[in-house]
Amino acid sequence: MTEAPQLLAGVDIGGTATEVVLCAADLGVVDRLTVPTLAHGGGAAMVGAALDALRVLLARTPGRLLGVGIGAAGVVDARAGRILVASDSFRDWAGFPVTETVEEALGVPAYLDNDVNAFLRGEVVRGAVTGERHVLGMTLGTGVGGALWLDGGLYDGPHGAAGEIGHVPGFGDLRCTCGGRGHLETLASGRSIAARYAERTGLSTTARRVAEAAAVGDPDALAVYESAGAAVARAILVTAGLLDVTTFVIGGGVSRAWALLEPSVQRALASEPPVSGRSVRVLPAHLGGDAVAVGAASRARAELATVTRV
Question: For residue 221, what are the contacts with CB-CB under 8 A and spacing of at least 6?
């Protein structure tokens, strides 16, 4: 009798949508389903929606589920499997026992990661920087997030905040959503791109609309993306100088306009190369919307392999 295929699940709980994927043992995506995130319904509703989606996938995909990885926005306690700090977009999310809830529902081990950490895991195992040992991952979305991959593994630092390049000062004096000033996020996030364009034109719009305007030559839109790209390059050069990391992968919704960002990124890198003299590689993410979920599944695979070895 043929043994049922082994499956891993990855879940990406975002601000508006939750993506659930089923992966084979090599982390290739077998099936996927996206559902709305019930952000105003509380933690139980959000995780419940993800579990319902996973049950749909399991019902139509033959195999044996080994474990589940979850990537979630906010500050997480990966070891305890809880959300520590969440934005006000989510109700009753901070403190919610994510992995405990999933394990009780499915009877398999579950593991929690910050969504940017999961994004970087995904791109290292199956995406743009597969096999790289030293990488900074940066997501340009509603905000700006970062994560570090050093010596072949995720490095989150003694307090879990390593790689958070989006909230490093030195990028002007604009007020950031976190309350600080001059952070990278004030220039390179989707929200900030829309705000900087509004300051120049008086028009309230979205980053996507600003990108569309830039693509047809709107000088204000082009200037906003020029500033965003130059700021991203400055963050890259700071990282290269401090950590000697020269490979970078950029994801998130804003990175879909990579053709607008890349020229100013490359100009800035060419004018001020890192002190090591090594060339810097900056790559757009390859996995798209699957990156966080695949990275979360990768975390589950790695943890389960450790348990098996023990």
Answer: 197, 210, 211, 213, 214
How far apart (Å, rounded) are the C-alpha atoms in residues 71 and 116? 8
Does the pLDDT at position 69 exceed 90? yes
Residue 199's identity, in one-letter code, is: E
pTM of this prediction?
A: 0.91
Contacts (Cβ under 8 Å, ≥6 apart) of 310: none
| 61 vs 308: CA distance, rounded Å | 25
Say what angle helices 207-215 and 219-243 make with each other, to 10 degrees: 110
Phi, psi at 41, each rounded to 5°: -90, -10
pLDDT of residue 243: 93
What is the DSSP code string of 101-163?
HHHHHHSS-EEEEEHHHHHHHHHHHHSTTTT-SSEEEEEESSSEEEEEEETTEEE--TTS-TT
Among residues 140, 95, 131, the alpha carbon closest in space to that of 258 is found at 140
Residues 197-247: pLDDT tens digits? Answer: 999 999 999 999 999 999 999 999 999 999 999 999 999 999 999 999 999
Q: pLDDT at residue 310 above 70? A: no
pLDDT of 161 above 90: no
